């Protein structure tokens, strides 16, 4: 296992801005770009700092597995209730009430 590979739940630091935080999303683009969304662990004016997204090579791994538990998408849960991720077809109301 490559210990330098960045994964969900890892603490990372942006080499350009110096901002750090926990990886909350990784996206893989069609032509090879891998983007990482980072949630800072800081507050400003009693509100959480906004997440930021950068290319993966721009990040430095600070610490592996900062979070004790990371939810992953399991698409093999047809009979189980899945609170996040892909959902089966949703039935829409024909006459929504407002």
Comma- or semicolon-separated keywords:
98 residues; mainly beta; five-stranded antiparallel β-sheet; two-stranded antiparallel ribbon; 7 strands; globular
Write structural notes for this entry.
By secondary structure, the protein is mostly beta strands. The chain has a domain of 53 residues. The protein is 0% helix and 33% strand. The strands form 2 sheets. A 5-stranded antiparallel sheet has the order 6-3-2-1-7, with no helix packed on it. It has a two-stranded antiparallel ribbon with strand order 4-5.
What is the compact description of this entry?
The protein is mostly beta strands and 98 residues long. The chain has strands spanning 11-14, 20-28, 34-39, 43-44, 47-48, 52-55, 59-63.
**Biggest β-sheet strands, sense, barrel:** 5 strands, antiparallel
Distance between the termini: 53 Å
Shape: globular
Class based on secondary structure composition and strand pairing: mainly beta
Order of helices and strands: EEEEEEE
Report the mean per-residue pLDDT as an integer: 79
Range of helix content: under 10%
Taking Cα atoms only, what radius of gyration do you get, to the nearest Å? 18 Å
Number of helices: 0
Strand order of the largest sheet: 6-3-2-1-7
Q: Which parts are unreliable, with pLDDT below 50 for 5 consecutive residues or more? A: none
Count of beta strands: 7
Report the sheet-strand fraction.
25-35%
């Amino acid at each position: 296992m490559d210990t330098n590979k960045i994964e969900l739940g890892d603490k990372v630091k942006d080499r350009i801005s110096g901002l750090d935080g926990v990886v909350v999303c990784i996206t893989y683009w069609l032509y090879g770009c891998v983007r990482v969304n980072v949630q800072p662990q800081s507050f400003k004016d009693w509100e959480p700092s906004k997440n930021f997204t950068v290319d993966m090579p721009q990040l430095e791994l600070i610490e592996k597995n900062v979070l004790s538990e990371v939810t992953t998408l399991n698409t093999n849960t047809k009979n189980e209730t899945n609170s996040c991720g892909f959902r089966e077809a949703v039935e829409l109301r024909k006459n929504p009430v407002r």
